[in-house]
Design brief:
By secondary structure, the protein is mainly alpha-helical. It folds into three domains: 224 residues, Growth Hormone, Chain: A (Up-down Bundle); 48 residues; 228 residues, Up-down Bundle (Growth Hormone, Chain: A), CATH 1.20.1250. It is built from 18 helices and two strands.
Length: 509
């Protein structure tokens, strides 16, 4: 690679590590601590997006009471966000490659803040839903730009491991942090502050981004694949909306299977088109690497499986053990701590030494064991003896599996594809979460209904039916993680993953 082409590849990006730039005449070399400040800004922005998927959930009953909307409309507060976010991620990632990651990142931050302010000030249901949809739309710009900035900023192997350990831990722990923050804000201030709090994150991320991120646009600009964009956006809308409908409609409803079928057909057409398009939106070279493809699947399974612990354990703590929202959020802190420690251990020490094959399956297996352990909870369980141990095991498992999978999924990506590859990571997690939401909610509701058949309704019987539904969700989550463990063992290759000077993944035994 010539000096000129190497420099051009990083125009508009944060400074790369010394390992790339120090030998290039005239290259701009940043101080080492500059990159860690960049990571701080990116992490704050990513946390804002991740926790917003759960921080509003605890506030929903208060918002419903204040604005007077129906139970049937309540799901749209969540669905509007996930629908816009999940369906527009690939477009957002490609726009980051086209326009420049810094400008797309900053637009995403400002837009997300404005949408949060609109939703927080809402005086009716329609404005609240509009604000949530706009949050999802700007989040779809922000999330892939943030991850691609991380990918192009940290090129030194050791620094990259540390950075992705932190970033992956935020992705895994964001749901729990959202539950805690949502509980504190709702209990002591107002449901509106679960939305207004994003303004604080946004101001820090915007000012830091303006000061620290490089200006400019990528030199190697890809052209926008309009037919591919339309196909994948419409396809993801169909899939996410279909699974969302499964929560409130029967699986036999046309609103469920019809949209799922339409989404699957459109995504198949999108895949076919990507093999023929001159400038594909999601080049198949991004997906077809064996280790990267395995990582994408692990991210989807983790997204689906994590739903069991965050949602149904929240139900258990609040409805069965009668915890307050704040106490419920605090109960998740040990899991978050275990996840963060395991994430740093996995990405800094284990992944560089052993590669993903032994680490990710172990993490998936531990998460499966933790979820299975949760099925033993009953009305007489205590937090210290019965809830805390499986929660820590699950946190360690997710910490071992999720950050390494995220790191492998984005390693070896050419600069021109960094945005869309990062968007694919977020898309897999979002679609996995949508599937988990629909599948586990439906299975839990069916289990509760089956338990009540032939029984005289009473408070103890209803309480036991709730426990049965939670246990069913835990078992299915455990099954998802177990399948992930087997697939990870079969799909990942042996050995450490290295990148050659052109950014291609190779395996070193």
């Amino acid at each position: 690679m010539s000096t000129q082409s190497a420099a051009d590849a990083h125009v508009g990006e944060p400074a790369a590590g010394p390992s790339l730039d120090k030998d290039l005449p005239g290259a701009r070399v940043e101080k080492p601590n500059h990159r860690w400040w960049v990571l701080t800004i990116i992490a704050i922005a990513q946390l804002m997006v991740v926790l917003d998927a759960t921080v509003v959930n605890i506030a929903l009953p208060s918002a419903q009471k204040a604005l007077g909307f129906s139970d049937g409309n309540r799901q749209w507060i969540v669905t509007a966000y996930s629908l816009a976010f999940g369906s527009l991620l690939l477009l957002g990632g490609r726009l980051a490659d086209l326009v420049g990651r810094k400008i797309v990142f900053l637009i995403g931050v400002v837009g997300f803040a404005g949408a949060s302010a609109l939703a927080g000030a809402a005086q009716n249901f329609e404005v609240l839903v509009t604000g949530r949809a706009l949050q999802g739309m700007f989040g779809a710009l922000l999330a892939p730009a943030a991850l691609s900035l991380l990918n192009t900023t940290f090129t030194d192997a050791k620094e990259r491991a540390k950075a992705f350990g932190i970033f992956g831990a935020i992705g895994g722990a964001g749901g729990g942090i959202g539950l805690l923050l949502g509980g504190v804000l709702t209990e002591h201030l107002s449901w509106r502050w679960t939305l207004y709090v994003n303004l604080v994150f946004a101001v820090i991320a915007f000012l830091g981004g303006m000061a620290l991120l490089r200006k400019g646009a990528p030199a190697d600009r890809p052209k926008l694949d309009v037919p591919g964009t339309v196909l994948v956006t419409a396809g993801l809308v169909g899939v996410v909306y279909g699974f969302s409908n499964a929560e409130t409609h029967d699986w036999s409803s046309p609103l469920t299977w019809g949209f799922l079928t339409l989404g699957a057909v459109l995504l198949a057409a999108f895949t076919w088109w990507q093999t023929r398009a001159e400038h594909p939106l999601l080049p198949l070279r991004v997906l077809l690497d064996r280790n990267r493809g395995a990582s994408f699947i692990m991210l989807a399974i983790s997204g689906a499986g994590m739903f069991g612990v965050f949602l149904f354990l929240t139900y258990y703590l609040q409805l069965s053990l009668h915890y307050t929202p704040v106490k419920t959020g605090l109960a998740f802190l040990p899991m978050i701590g275990a996840l963060m420690v395991a994430a740093q251990l996995a990405t800094n020490m284990l992944l560089p030494r052993f590669g993903p094959r032994p680490i990710v399956p172990l993490g998936m297996a531990l998460a499966a064991g933790g979820m299975a352990w949760l099925t033993a909870l009953d009305l007489g369980s205590t937090y210290a003896a019965n809830v805390l141990p499986p929660l820590i095991v699950t946190g360690v498992g997710i910490g071992l599996a999720l950050p390494p999978a995220m790191s492998v999924a984005t390693s070896g990506i050419a600069p021109r594809d960094a945005g869309v590859a990062s968007a694919a990571v977020n898309t897999m997690q979002q679609v996995g979460g949508s599937i988990g939401t629909a599948l586990l909610n439906t299975l839990a509701a069916s289990a509760a209904a089956s338990y009540l058949v032939g029984k005289k309704l009473s408070a103890p019987v209803v309480a036991q039916s709730q426990l049965h539904s939670y246990s069913t969700a835990y078992w299915w989550s455990a099954g998802l993680f177990a399948v992930g463990a087997v697939l990870a063992l079969l799909m990942f290759t042996n050995g450490r993953i290295k990148e050659d000077p052109e950014g291609v993944q190779t395996v070193h035994m």
